[in-house]
Amino acid sequence: MKKQYFLIFSLLCLFLFLTACGKDKTSSSKQEEKKEPTYSFYKKENETRYEDYKEKNPNLSMKDVIIRVNIGLDYPFYTNTKKSPYLNTSKLLVNKYFYLGEDYVPNHLVELDTSISKGGISLVEEASIALRNLIMDAKNDGYTIRAMSAYRSYQYQVNLYNNYVSQDGREDADTYSARPGFSEHQTGLCVDVDNKDASYTDFESTKEFGWMQEHAADYGFILRYPKGKEAITGYQYESWHYRYVGEKIAKYIKEHDITFDEYYMEFIDK
Description:
Helices cover 44% and strands 10% of the residues. By secondary structure, it is α+β, with helices and mostly antiparallel strands. It folds into two domains: 40-74, no CATH class; 80-268, Muramoyl-pentapeptide Carboxypeptidase, domain 2. It has a four-stranded antiparallel β-sheet. Strands 1-2 form a two-stranded parallel sheet. It is globular and about 55 Å long. The relative contact order is 0.11.
């Protein structure tokens, strides 16, 4: 009889132990669910925005949700804007949420000579050196690449953008031209290229485009508005528009097939 009581008592203790363990696991699991993401670019102040954006975009990973909200993509373009930090560095981001002041002129602008450009255009010196190396090496490989547009002042962009609006209307113009202050060309770090023969808008159809796709990152340049990324960049695909970000960043962006906007929010924005 004592053995029976002992067996029942043992089984009861085991049941209570297993029940307690189950509660601990459930409690631990709930705590894990409530645990905030460990991404270094997660911003507590954006928590509600992350939740709302995730609900509207359930197919996106949480990482992509956080990055896109940090870019500002949960707001319409040209709203919730802020002034760009990191002026006069290759980390400078300008897009439809980050802008430059009317008076901003980058330091160390140098005019590109006609051996690598159509003439009368300028780039920041660091970018101009990298571009010269790129163009000369392309030439040695049998390719012709020429800079046909680079730095643009705020006032230049005012005139250009207004002309496009008069021609196509604001909605269409916004898909391919930046509003004044929001143009990457004002940074002095981007360049539009052609091959001297075809129009720059047909650059994708040239053999030089293939060379740029393979080698641009080796010189610190990225295709700034790639195909399939329009929802992130806010611009139509532009095969001719390249941005200098430095070799390390350019290679990472190319390898991971992301935009500079995404890279900036993951690694630069603080």
